Amino acid sequence: MGREHPFRHNQLFTSTPTSSTPRLDIAIMSYVIFGRAVKSEYLTLATLGAVGAIVALTKGGSKAPEKLAPGQTIIDKVKESVPINASSSEEEQLMDSIRKFIAEAEKEQKH
Q1: What is the pTM of this model?
Q2: pLDDT band at residue 111, thresholds of 50, 70 and 90?
Q3: pLDDT tens per residue, range 21-80
Q4: Hey, how many other C-beta atoms are within 10 angstroms of the C-beta on 30?
Q5: Which of 19, 60, 77, 86 could cross-link with 91 by S-S, CB 3.0 to 4.6 Å?
Q6: Which keywords accompany this UniProt record (predicted)?
Q7: What backbone phi and psi angles, to 5 degrees, belong to 34?
Q8: Which of 14, 6, 13 is nearest to 28 (CA)?
Q9: 104: how many CB neighbours lie within 10 A of its CB?
Q10: CA 43 to CA 39: how far, in whole Å?
Q11: For position 15, what pLDDT does the model report?
């Protein structure tokens, strides 16, 4: 009889075949961590959970909302933060027509 290495926990499990189920051979790998055998699938799930938690913690949290100056509306704030710079006369004409359209739409919305 051979003596198995104490840190090697490879086991071959064989399901009991019945007349309708085929024989399944599944190798289950485990590691010894702090004196306990831990299956590799548990280590995989723990790793994925830890990575997911770290991502959620770094992406989460609330940012302090920027305060508006007195008398300033959200629309004014958006117009300031998104400047429209044209590089040619055609783009400038297009931007002017878009500005006019937005101004007309705002006037219609106020009425």
Answers
A1: 0.36
A2: low
A3: 555 556 678 888 898 888 999 999 999 999 999 999 888 777 777 777 788 787 777 777
A4: 17
A5: 86
A6: Membrane, Mitochondrion
A7: 50, 40
A8: 13
A9: 10
A10: 7
A11: 42
Asked if residue 82 lies in contact with residue 99, where contact means CB atoms within 8 angstroms, the answer is: no
Query: What is the per-residue pLDDT for 12?
Result: 47
37-65 burial, b if ≥16 CB within 10 A, otherwise e?
eeeeeeeeeeeeeeeeeeeeeeeeeeeee
Assign 3-class secondary structure to the chain. CCCCCCCCCCEEEECCCCCCCCCCEEEECEEEECCEEEEHHHHHHHHHHHHHHHHHHHHCCCCCCCCCCCCCCHHHHHHHHCCCCCCCHHHHHHHHHHHHHHHHHHHHHHC
